From TrEMBL, chain A:
Belongs to the FAD-dependent oxidoreductase family. The lineage of its organism: Bacteria, Pseudomonadati, Bacteroidota, Flavobacteriia, Flavobacteriales. It comes from Algibacter amylolyticus. PANTHER family: NITRITE REDUCTASE [NAD(P)H], PYRIDINE NUCLEOTIDE-DISULFIDE OXIDOREDUCTASE DOMAIN-CONTAINING. Its cofactor is FAD. Pfam families: Pyr_redox_2. This is NAD(P)/FAD-dependent oxidoreductase. Keywords: FAD, Flavoprotein. Residues 4-290 form the FAD/NAD(P)-binding domain. Signal peptide: none annotated.
TrEMBL record, chain B:
GO terms for cellular component: plasma membrane. GO terms for molecular function: 4 iron, 4 sulfur cluster binding; metal ion binding. It holds the Pfam family Fer4_9. It comes from the Bacteria. The chain crosses the membrane at residues 25-44, 50-67, 94-113, 148-168, 180-201, 235-256, 297-318, 330-349, 361-379, 399-417. Keywords: 4Fe-4S, Electron transport, Iron, Iron-sulfur, Membrane, Metal-binding, Transmembrane, Transmembrane helix, Transport. InterPro entries: 4Fe4S_Fe-S-bd, 4Fe4S_Fe_S_CS, Electron_Trans/Redox. Residues 443-471, 474-503 form the 4Fe-4S ferredoxin-type domain. This is 4Fe-4S binding protein. The lineage of its organism: Bacteria, Pseudomonadati, Bacteroidota, Flavobacteriia, Flavobacteriales. It comes from Algibacter amylolyticus.
Length: 435, 529
């Protein structure tokens, strides 16, 4: 009989692994998930609440896809794993045997032990259930007079945009003194601050949550701010202060865990025939200068692609290419290629060239090596750029002069859009003269 | 766990989002404008038609203008799709069906019972709604209005008013603005005003919308039309030569350079209405694989029908005067078959690999057309083809395809099947352009490496029902015959993944297994085989 591959988690990493294993082999494949029957795109959760799409539109494959490709789906929550008997035990009471197991259980929202963090009306924004919870507590601005969001990252700003779309007033607590400035250089971070305020979102920088207060029914009534002691009345509190691997159910197993499931570069855990990929996997050491846990869509997909090769007999390491990522801050799109560090974490050899358009919705930051002038990476806001071009330039180790002079080749904005490369170039040349 | 959506009966926004007072006033103004027309329909005698017509059309436009300004100019620039799937009218809710029924009824009356609109029979005075439009018609061309003039005017007003709305909605997007300006211009100038002026200059000329190309304009080669042109000296001759050139020379060149979008979403009137008045319904087109299959069968069947029908029409009247015209029936049939064979052989020779499995269907289509033409030639008598009257074939086409499919279903069903069901399932012109776009065009939608997050916004807003995400999430470019190049997928993509562009034909179609950003060696390894 064909080997049985069981995958826990039907997110992008688990599903990618399953699809590629199917392309390469005839193995029996089962995907297990407690969240939803079918794979959906977590990144699109916000668009459901905003009414751009319905839930079914976030499912990248039609429902017949799974049977046609002989990928079995099982809905259920894995309580624990018996690694000697190679068996999964479900909360629902049943069990499932595997020959090889892939753990792809993703993340869960961080909670930092705030008083009141488990009250009714307090929620993260990660799972489909969180969305349903939000729909219940914040269907409109009659039921939810104000929402407070705690944590200024990518999910926090998405949640702010969601609530804004239903005209629910939002107070946005950000611990840092400027939005996401642990990652973004200050010029960009401050531009986003202003953009958030333009959307009438009450952005509170350098502000921490002290506690969440309940009304007589155990529902959220207000929050207290650490720094000022101010009380803000609200009906919903969104906790979006980052995510951690969703691996509590492994605590009693023999599988080695740290913050996530510990894996080597082959994505193997300490137990033979058990692998981990996606948000929940933690490398012993970050690969190619990356973080040891990478909780983004693309890396989950890449790990799935890689592991499928290993499982189908072509053992290879997870060896991702040049870093890239993207996001959208309300109306401003953001893309990044290579590495651009914020001032807070910038290595001392890294220098930046920053250009911002006068309309305050477009800017770029190019990072380069102080002495060699090697191009290290670019952040671009409000201007779309070509992934392939930057990937090539990074591989060819181009210098910053080359990149700025050839920027038009990387433009990916729709036809007829205004071009800013000439302005960028002249700003660059002026700065060179001053420096 | 359900994702049930409670459709509110509110015309505009979901439960959570009320419309502003200003928008309510705008709606009221618009509805009063419509109400004047309703009164006219009921044969109310207005003291001064010209004034009331102006008032009616003006109020409708004004309503749309105020409404849109309030909806978009009060917010920052950006994607404005909030609540699209909550609004009853744009999410298969009750209002959507009400509107569908109203529109469909209007089309049925328009096509089949124009007397109910007040069209005067056999030269009698118009009454009702048509009468209301008499002053404008007389102003433009000196003749009383017809039901088609009423329709044309409303159609043009719809494209202009909702075009304005669309331009505001996408005021951050130059591609959308210019494209919409273009459809507004072509509708107002080419479809509406120029034919009226042509009539004033020479009232024997058949109605000719210069931008309407065969086979969309299926009547251009009808006997009355061709005779009309030919009996009008040089200008008529020039027009019919232009008609032939636009089908066989101009269209292929532009489609090669820009894809079918130059026509479908920049020039065409059907496309123009779909992109403007139909914009709110674009998300309703089905993205299912089964819908795509149906689409390919239907649209190509219509194409075969329209080719055979046109050839049959020309064929029957060619026979009348045997010797005084160089183009005899035999010669004509041979030319058509020769031309089709040339195209078919060329495609099979150069492109059969790209067609893959579809090559078989292409061959079936080709041989059935040839077979039909030969049968026609050898069974034909003077006016019969396939033992039925050529004109009967023509009127069947006009009825089922020209009226019911394109009008009643195509537009009447906007709120049910989406705004491009005619363009997608029925338009023979789209089939030809699409065929060329897939095989001989520089146009494609480029996918930006590995940036796609599979969110589905692109597929959701594709009016042609293309599952754009299916390609984008694999890093593949989108080269689909049905894509009309509206650019909305690119506009709504939150990660900047899609770009419509014209570039070299090489590497246009790029199936990849492993996406950019991954291990370079792994990508090479997997993509090599
Ligand atoms: C709102 C939001 C927006 C985002 N936007 C972006 C973005 O724009 N770009 C980007 O790169 N990344 C984005 N991310 C992050 C990205 O979605 C994740 O990195 C990615 O989904 C992780 O995929 P995964 O397959 O590792 O895990 P997941 O998608 O989390 O899937 C894991 C699945 O396993 C299930 N599961 C867990 N434990 C068990 C168990 N014991 N038994 C059964 N089932 C279990 C979970 O319920 C879940 O369904 C976003 C995340 C969120 C929440
Ligand atoms: S694929 Fe994009 S450009 Fe083409 S029709 Fe669909 S939405 Fe428009
Ligand atoms: S909208 Fe963009 S990111 Fe979303 S699925 Fe389409 S191409 Fe991918």
């Amino acid at each position: 009989m064909e080997e049985h591959i069981v995958i826990i988690g039907n997110g992008i990493s688990g599903v990618t692994a399953a699809r590629h294993i199917r392309k390469l082999s005839d193995k029996r494949i089962t995907i297990v998930s407690a969240e939803t029957e079918y794979f959906f795109s977590r990144t699109a959760l916000m668009y459901i609440y905003m009414g751009h799409m319905k839930f079914e539109h976030t499912q990248p494959y039609e429902n017949w896809f799974w049977e046609k490709n002989r990928i079995e789906l099982k809905k259920g929550y894995v309580n624990n794993i018996d690694t000697t008997a190679k068996t999964l035990h479900f909360a629902e009471g049943d069990a499932l045997n595997y020959d090889k197991l892939i753990i792809a259980t993703g993340s869960k929202p961080n909670k930092f032990g705030w008083p009141g963090q488990d009250l009714e009306g307090v929620m993260g924004m990660y799972h489909k259930q969180d969305l349903e919870n939000l729909e219940k507590h914040a269907p409109n601005n009659d039921v939810c007079k104000r929402a407070v969001i705690v944590g200024g990252g990518l999910i926090g700003i998405e949640l702010a945009e969601m609530l804004n779309s239903r005209n629910i007033p939002v107070t946005f607590l950000v611990r840092e003194d400027s939005f996401w400035n642990g990652v973004l250089p200050s010029g960009e971070s401050q531009m986003i601050n202003r953009h958030i305020k333009n959307h009438h979102i009450d952005l509170r920088l350098a502000t921490n949550l002290k506690e969440i207060k309940a009304d007589e029914n155990g529902k959220v009534k207000s929050i207290i701010i650490e720094e000022t002691g101010e009380e803000i009345e609200c009906n919903v509190v969104g906790l979006t202060a980052g995510v951690t691997p969703n691996i509590n159910f492994l605590k009693d197993s023999t599988i080695e865990v740290g913050r996530g499931v510990k894996v080597n570069p082959y994505l193997e855990t300490n137990i033979k025939d058990i692998y981990a990929i996606g948000d929940c996997a933690e490398q012993h050491e970050g690969i190619n200068g990356r973080r040891s846990i990478e909780a983004v869509w693309y890396t989950g997909r890449m790990m799935g692609e890689t592991l499928a090769q290993t499982i189908c007999g072509n053992k290879i390491q997870y060896n991702p290419g040049h870093w890239f990522n993207s996001a959208k801050f309300l109306d401003i799109e953001y893309q990044t290629y290579g590495w651009v560090y914020s001032e807070r974490s910038c290595p001392d050899y890294e220098k930046h060239f920053h250009w911002k358009h006068e309309d305050d919705t477009k800017c770029i930051t190019v990072a380069y090596h102080k002495t060699t002038k090697a191009f290290l990476g670019i952040n671009t806001f409000g201007i779309r750029m070509r992934h392939e071009t930057f990937d090539t330039w990074l591989t060819e180790k181009r210098d910053v002069d080359y990149v700025i002079n050839h920027l038009p080749e990387a433009n990916f904005d729709p036809e007829f859009y205004s071009h800013y490369e000439a302005d960028i170039l002249s700003t660059y040349n002026k700065q060179l003269q001053i420096a | 766990m359900s994702n049930k959506i409670n459709n509110s009966m509110s015309l505009a926004k979901p439960d959570a989002l009320d419309i502003s007072t200003k928008q309510k006033v705008a709606l009221a103004i618009g509805f009063i404008g419509l109400f004047i027309m309703a009164l006219a329909l009921l044969n109310t005698n207005f003291p001064n038609e010209g004034l009331f017509l102006t008032l009616s059309l003006g109020m409708i436009s004004l309503g749309v203008i105020i409404y849109s300004r309030e909806a978009y100019l009060t917010k920052l620039e950006g994607i404005k799709n909030d609540g699209v799937w909550f609004k009853s009218i744009s999410s298969h809710g009750a209002w959507g069906y009400v509107l569908g029924v109203v529109l469909t009824t209007f089309y049925i009356v328009l096509y089949f019972f124009p007397q109910y609109l007040g069209l005067g029979k056999d030269g009698a005075e118009n009454t009702g709604l048509v009468h209301l439009f008499d002053p404008l018609s007389k102003l433009l061309s000196g003749r009383p209005a017809s039901q088609w003039f009423v329709y044309g005017t409303l159609y043009t007003i719809a494209i202009l008013a909702f075009g304005y709305k669309f331009i505001l909605k996408y005021r951050h997007n130059r591609y959308q603005q210019i494209r919409t300006g273009s459809v507004m211009f072509f509708q107002l100038g080419f479809a509406f005003l120029i034919p009226e002026f042509m009539y004033v200059m020479n009232n024997d000329l058949p109605y000719y919308d210069l931008k309407s190309v065969w086979p969309l304009n299926y009547y251009i080669f009808d006997e009355w039309s061709v005779n009309g042109f030919l009996s009008n000296g040089n200008i008529g001759l020039a027009l019919i030569v232009f008609g032939i050139l636009s089908t066989f020379i101009i269209t292929p060149i532009l489609t090669y350079k820009y894809g079918k979008r130059w026509y479908c979403s920049w020039v065409c009137g059907c496309g123009g209405l779909a992109e403007t008045a139909g914009d709110s319904f674009r998300q309703l087109s089905s993205k299912k694989m089964s819908a795509w299959k149906l689409e390919r069968w239907l649209i190509h069947t219509v194409l075969v029908f329209s080719v055979v029908m046109t050839v049959a029409m020309v064929y029957t009247y060619l026979g009348y005067d045997k010797n005084d015209f160089w183009l005899t029936r035999g010669l004509f049939i041979s030319l058509v078959i020769g031309f089709l064979t040339l195209v078919f052989a060329g495609v099979m020779f150069f492109k059969s690999k790209e067609l893959g499995k579809d090559a078989k269907y292409g061959a079936i289509g080709f041989f059935s057309v040839i077979a039909l033409l030969l049968i026609m030639h050898f069974t034909g008598t003077t006016e019969h083809v396939f033992f039925i009257k050529g004109s009967a074939l023509r009127s069947a086409y006009g009825l089922y395809i020209g009226s019911i499919f394109s009008g009643v279903i195509g537009t009447g069903f906007y709120p049910i099947l989406g705004n491009r069901s005619w363009c997608r399932f029925g338009c023979p012109m789209a089939a030809i352009l699409g065929f060329q776009q897939r095989l001989f065009s520089k146009f494609r939608i480029t996918t930006n490496g590995g940036q796609c997050i599979s969110c589905g916004n692109c597929s959701n807003s594709c009016e042609m029902g293309i599952d754009v995400r299916h390609y984008a999430q694999k890093g593949e470019n989108i080269v689909r015959s049905s894509c009309v190049g509206c650019g909305i997928c690119s506009a709504v993509c939150p990660r900047g993944v899609l770009k419509l562009e014209n570039d070299s034909m090489d590497g246009r179609i790029n199936p990849t297994e492993i996406l950019l950003g991954n291990d370079v060696d792994l990508m090479d390894l997997v993509n090599k085989k």
